[in-house]
Amino acid sequence: MSPLHPTLLKVRQRIEKRSAASRAQYLNSLPAGPSPRTSMGCANLAHATAVFPTADKFKIAVEKAPHLGIVTAYNDMLSAHQPFAMYPAKIAGYAQELGVTTQVAGGTPAMCDGITQGREGMELSLFSRDVIALSACVGLSHDVFDGGILLGVCDKIAPGLLIGALAFGHLPFVFIPAGPMSSGLSNPEKAKIRQLASEGKADRATLLRAEEAAYHSSGTCTFYGTANSNQLMLDFMGLQYPGGAFCAPNSPERERLIQHSVHAIARAAASDHRNALKLAELVNSTSLLNALVGLMASGGSTNHTIHWITVARAAGYLIDWTDLDEISSVTPLLTRVYPNGTEDVNAFHAAGGTAYLLRTLIEGGFVDGSAMTSFGCSLGECLDGLLQASSQSSNLDVLRPHTQPFQSDGGIRLLQGNLGRSVCKVSAVKQVNRSITAPCRVFSDQHEVIEAFERDEFTQDVVVVVIHQGPKANGMPELHKLTPVLGVLQDRGLAVALVTDGRMSGASGKVLAAIHVSPEAMQDGPIGKLRDGDLIRIEADHGVLQTDADLKNRNVQTMPARSGNLGRSYFNAWRRAVSGAEQGATHLFEEF
């Protein structure tokens, strides 16, 4: 095991120093350990165990055998979560093998960004993460559990579950994922048909057939977007079976993973070493840094430049985009999975997957293999023992060793200048497209951009600016509907880029995009003072986001009134209280 890279060690030490007070405050807020059920009133305990047979009631109330709470985000609208329908019964069966009882503590909402893209519901998407965190707390609040099992996969759901569980960090937890669907229509072919449809060269029936061929069964979507980035990062944190993220649903491999995970958390809940395995100890500066290295090495989703800042804050750590930029600057890009390549996560898993990626990053000194996992062993020990991870990749077009990277850095950059600070993902952007100086067009909605495209208004190099898309404005929706039209413009030979205080999908890639611009327009951010024709310069490789326009005497453009409700008005108070994107776009913490 190589020593940690000096830059990564410096970043970790800086985070620890910055977070000393907040980390101590978090740890001091937790109970010393699970509350003894003997302290519960008889009526309380009877309510909790009413559905159990007498033998199980005896185990819980008298023998005080470990009792595990399950928090599930199951619904059958999300293909990734449909397999969870059977998980509570499977988990109960495997727990019984060790004399342990389980109970579904509660459910959380789980929405699909793929369904809400470009629609009003997307304005609830980012806030759903904090709803999930709160609902996980509600389920766990009954205080009868010795440990927990978290069932959730997709974009906001896994981070939300982890944030909520950290409020109960005195207990051990494990995630059990569901795995990806089998490969269907290739992601590049799907993207091609989307672009043709945006130009009117493919009809709705053709587009629908393509989409249905891509999304065709249970399991996560197969591109490497936010959901699958979640899964890789949880593997890297040791909070789920390291290397098991992309095992297929309903496979023997998946079944073994479920059994091993249940047995591991049952042992942790009963262990004399419970304190070493409790969530508050496992989610520390080392595991957080490991997860962020995994994000960069895999070319993962920019959404985690928001989500994992909030996860870290829930554990008492203060992380910012400067930290992420430095991590990315020294982390080699070792995977090419769509949108950063042509293959999908199934090909990545077949090539060696997260287990091999972990192994080579540990060998290279980029991941700390001594980090403890929920399985009672370190990451390095898991790879050698539980998984016997491959010592080489079987497909160097998809997954490479640290000595042979696709590029020397991780591909997520911090851009800054007189327009503020923003995040830019360049791992899928060709070198020739990583810088632009061009006049801008300013819009307040992605549909306005699409309408301008359909009117053939983009005939020269352009920086498309979309304002009033930040968390305070409208909940910071993803603007994935822009991906096909901007891709068409780029394919026509125009230099094109996007600048926005909103988000882009984890599936976005080839178009240069400065996103999450902070401060946002609703906070009097300079981005809101731009006007059509202002010259904007973006240099991704040098971290520049600049305008030549004099903005001092300009006001922020007024946000247009929006019609309709569909639940959005219920989040008005959250929009007023939410922090900026670099602080995690959350309302859960009073201060950072």
Automatic annotation (TrEMBL):
User: What Pfam family does this protein match (any one)?
Assistant: ILVD_EDD_N
Q: Which domain of life is it from?
A: Bacteria
Keyword vocabulary terms for this entry: 4Fe-4S, Carbohydrate metabolism, Gluconate utilization, Iron, Iron-sulfur, Lyase, Metal-binding
Q: Does the keyword Iron-sulfur apply?
A: yes
Its Enzyme Commission number?
Answer: 4.2.1.12
Q: Which residues form the Dihydroxy-acid/6-phosphogluconate dehydratase N-terminal domain?
A: 66-381
Where is the Dihydroxy-acid/6-phosphogluconate dehydratase C-terminal domain positioned along the sequence?
A: 397-585
Family, according to the entry, reads as follows: Belongs to the IlvD/Edd family.
Identification of the protein by name: Phosphogluconate dehydratase
